[in-house]
Amino acid sequence: MSKQPLAETPCTRRSPVILVPRSKIPDSTHAELVARSAGRCEFCNVFLYRHPLTGERGNFAEDAHIVAFSERGPRGEEDRPADINNIDNLMLLCRPDHKLIDDNEERYTRPFLELRKREHEARIQRVTEYGPSTQTTVLQLKVKIGSQVVEVDRTETFEALFPRYAVADPHIIDLTGLGDEEPGAFYKLAADLIRRRAALLYEAGSDLERTRHLSVLALAPIPLLVNLGNSLSNKVATDFYQCHRTRPENRWNWYEGAPPARFALRRLRTGTDPAAVGLVLSLSGAIDIGSLPAHVDERFSVYEISPVDAVPSTGLLRQKEDLEAFRAVYRNALAELRRGHPGLKVLHVFPALPAPAAVTCGFDLLPKVDPELRIYDNVKTEGGFVERLSVNAHEQQ
Ligand SMILES: [Zn+2]
Predict the structure, then answer these.
(1) What SS3 state is found at 70?
(2) Which residue of 43, 123, 173, 330 lies most exposed, with the fewest beta carbons within 10 A?
């Protein structure tokens, strides 16, 4: 209950605004209060150094005592702090809220105001703690591989990203709802969904606009991964992660410290038609040229990127540097094919790739410069390589 007679009007109240000249509060304390509150009212969160309606600059902040400077002021008779101007007893407030809480001390009690101050300052601390370079936006794909839904464990994501921090829930492109289509239709629908969802990442107001960094943790059939990479913008720094499935924990962490794997491009066959070119990517497994589809005949020149001094295997990419080494060779290979096959419009790609390498195959394509890629998938139940998707088709751009 109020200690003041109810008839008293706010104008006659001994508000600390009137009683306490601002100079009584040390400049350093005032500065710290503004810093802790981020210059915002600790009651309504309005920014106090710009007029909320006109946008004009100005100082609309008031230093307010929780326990009043005077014993006769609001909450003034409570267990008074030794130093009434201690920062723990001060709130930065807008003028209307200052008046509201001092005119209604029975409602705006000391514990209530102390909690409000604590929560506001903790929130400011939390949202300003991490600089831009330590934030990231996480992108994941959710797919069925066989009958199993593949999802990425949150703890493993955190471990893989460290010392970056995801600022929001991961963006998950969920393809599991498309699972019952026949394969041709499924790939088209999935590729379309991936493109549309990926485009949303780059729209104004998305958290990627704030973080300026994307982390991709994706497992899916290879053609969809290439499509995913091709749907991402290389204008935003992007990191790619690999799931090391045989590792007992922290499966998405890159290994560190060994010399990077090496890769090289070689020509397996020179074809009769300079515009017919195939590219075999033998990383997670060796691909025999004899296993390519029948229409990839003697007209086709066929090239291969494979590891140097190592056997293709699913555990080949262990470190981030291994992926970077592959990307450099892949980009050079595209340039070499453009030079060696002028007018090359369509490149047929036969991939056996770890997931992040597949994503970068789409990501690293130069629109309008590199050829359209026809991506095949090795499907045992269909007897070998089947064309699944086209990316970087020039008429789409
Ligand atoms: Zn306010």
Answers:
(1) coil
(2) 123
CA of 168 to the centre of ligand 1 (A): 28
Q: What is the mean pLDDT of the chain?
A: 90
Enter the tokens of residue 184: 């041709």
Domain residue spans of the chain: 10-128, 132-396
What spacing in Å lies between the alpha carbon of 104 and ligand 1's midpoint?
15
Tell me, in angstroms, the distance from the centre of ligand 1 to residue 300's CA: 72
330: nearest Cα among 310, 304, 350, 308: 304
Q: Is the dihedral of CA 110, 115, 116, 121 positive or negative?
A: positive
Q: How far is the CA of 62 from the centre of ligand 1 (A)?
A: 10
Residues making up the chain, counted from first to last: 397
Centroid of ligand 1 to alpha carbon of 100 (angstroms): 9
Q: What is the DSSP string of 123-162?
A: HHHHHHSS-GGGEEEEEEEEEEETTEEE---HHHHHHHHT
CB 37: neighbour CB atoms within 10 A? Answer: 21
Place of tokens 């704030």: 210
The model's pLDDT over 15-37, given as tens digits with 9 standing for 90+, comes to 444 445 555 899 999 999 999 99
Task: Compute, in angstroms, the gap from residue 118 CA to the centroid of ligand 1.
Answer: 15
Distance (Å, whole) CA 170 – CA 156: 13
pLDDT value for 131: 65
Cis peptide before 163 (omega within 30 of 0): yes
Q: Ligand 1 centre from 155 Cα, in Å?
A: 39
Taking each helix axis from N to C end, the angle separating 27-37 and 110-128, rounded to the nearest 10 degrees, works out to 70
Cα separation, 151 vs 156, whole angstroms: 11
User: What is the DSSP-derived secondary structure letter of residue 313?
Assistant: -
**Could you tell me the distance, in angstroms and rounded to a whole number, from the CA of residue 81 to the centre of ligand 1?**
24
* Ligand 1 geometric centre to CA of 45 (Å): 6
Task: Return d(Cα 193, Cα 327) in angstroms, integer.
Answer: 26
Phi/psi for 205 (5° steps) reads 90, -10
The pocket of ion ligand 1, defined by CB under 5 A, consists of: 41, 43-44, 94, 97
Residue 322 has pLDDT above 50, yes or no: yes
How far apart are the CA of 42 and the centre of ligand 1, in A?
7
- pTM for this prediction: 0.68
Q: Which two tokens stand for residue 79?
A: 């267990």
